[in-house]
Specification:
This protein is 37% helix and 18% strand. The chain has 378 residues and is α/β, with parallel strands linked by helices. The strands form three sheets. It has a seven-stranded mixed sheet with strand order 7-6-8-9-10-13-14, sandwiched between helices. It has a five-stranded parallel sheet with strand order 2-1-3-4-5, with helices on both faces.
């Protein structure tokens, strides 16, 4: 009889990105419910909540690895948290399953990346926005690696398109004083805005842009949209009623996705928890990470990360993201691109889509140049 396998779950359900952490936790919970419901007993979760404390992520990873014997950890939301725990995962030759969109420029044999990188979200987003609204954006971001790197790439995309970035501003996590940024946007009149803020900062910014649009129609979403790559369905409940309608978000999944697999998935979820809110990309990615991890472990003689990694590379994984393949060179999943517009029901209407895109985390494009390329498509 095979020994039980414990996998660590490391998400923060409180703090500035707590809504995303709760979505991830719920996705994990549903995946394990289905596993146990199908008779699965070998793989067991061990939970640790760091409560948005960066130092506690390292403490949690250490506890999961050392005290619980977890060689696989599914978790972390922010890049700062991922980078905090990664050296420890490497030291113990574990495997971190990371399922959030991130800024790219990383490929680690000790990480399976199920969240999108810029060629899967930011570049297709700009290929949609620039021909329709112009190449004169304004960039806002959280004052850490996600905001810095996403805006750096955006600057290069705009330069490649012959445009001009009209402004670039940053806010600390949880900062909600956005008045000076809004005044600068009103003065400079950009063609669109890239929003890389997180949590309460993003919610306050979207509410302030709504008020600006009421004062000046040039800033209504149909004229000057605010576009994000990290906004989730569950977060829309945190924004004042109606304030985000019409704004845009790029993702690899939305609750409203019209596919046979998604309809079946949501029916199973409603049977499990009838009161469940809309499913977000974070929920879907955490669910997918768990199901992939369990299936790869059960197909292996043991839970050794190298063996599990070969199982992940050796097949495609049908599910909410289509037939997902993980590149054995970069450990990144191929993911679809979807563009959603926020509707009056606090969800997203899908207005543009592309089939799964192979990840290119270093934006090499098959060459040695690490430079994002903007190919305009209508």
């Amino acid at each position: 009889m095979l020994d039980p396998v414990k996998i660590g779950i490391l998400y923060s359900t409180t703090g500035p990105y707590g809504a995303m952490g709760r979505d991830a936790f719920d996705g994990v919970e549903f995946a394990f419910h289905e596993y146990r419901n199908a008779g699965g007993t070998r793989v067991q979760p061990v939970f640790f909540d760091p409560h948005a404390d960066l130092a506690a992520y390292l403490e949690g990873a250490r506890s999961l690895i050392r005290d619980s014997g977890c060689r696989h950890i599914i978790g972390t939301i922010t890049s700062a948290a991922r980078k905090e725990v990664l050296p420890l995962v490497e030291k113990h030759d574990g495997l971190l399953w990371y399922m959030c969109p991130y800024e790219g420029f990383e490929a680690n044999e000790n990480v399976i990346y199920i969240g999108g990188c810029p060629n899967q979200h930011l570049i297709p987003l700009f290929e949609h926005l620039v021909p329709r609204f112009g190449a004169r954006p304004y960039l806002v971001g959280a004052n850490y690696v996600w905001g810095w790197e996403m805006n750096r790439l955006a600057r290069e995309l705009v330069a490649n398109a012959g445009g001009t970035v009209l402004g670039e501003r940053y806010l600390p996590l949880e900062e909600t004083a956005v008045e000076r940024i809004i005044a600068d946007i009103a003065e400079k009149r950009p063609s669109f805005i890239l929003n890389n803020l997180i949590g309460p900062s993003s919610y306050a910014f979207l509410e302030a842009m709504h008020e600006l649009g009421k004062r000046d129609p040039a800033f209504l979403p149909e004229n000057c949209p605010v576009a994000s790559c990290d906004l989730q369905e569950s977060e829309l409940d945190e924004i004042a009623a109606g304030a985000a309608i019409g704004q845009l978000c790029a993702a690899s999944y939305f609750d409203t996705l019209d596919s046979t697999e998604n309809h079946a998935f949501k029916a199973r979820l409603r049977a499990f928890k009838p009161e469940t809110r809309r499913v977000s990309c974070i929920f879907a990615s955490a669910y997918t990470a768990v199901t992939m991890c369990i299936a790869a472990i059960e197909a292996s003689a043991d839970s050794d990360p190298a063996t599990v990694r070969r199982q992940v590379h050796g097949r495609t994984w049908p599910g909410l993201f289509g037939d997902m393949a993980v590149d054995p060179v970069t450990n990144h999943a191929a993911l679809p691109f979807l563009l959603g517009r926020i509707n009056s029901e606090r969800g997203f209407d899908v207005i543009a889509a592309r089939p799964p895109l192979a990840a290119d985390p270093y934006l090499t494009g098959g060459s040695a140049r690490r430079e994002p390329r903007l190919k305009v498509v209508s």
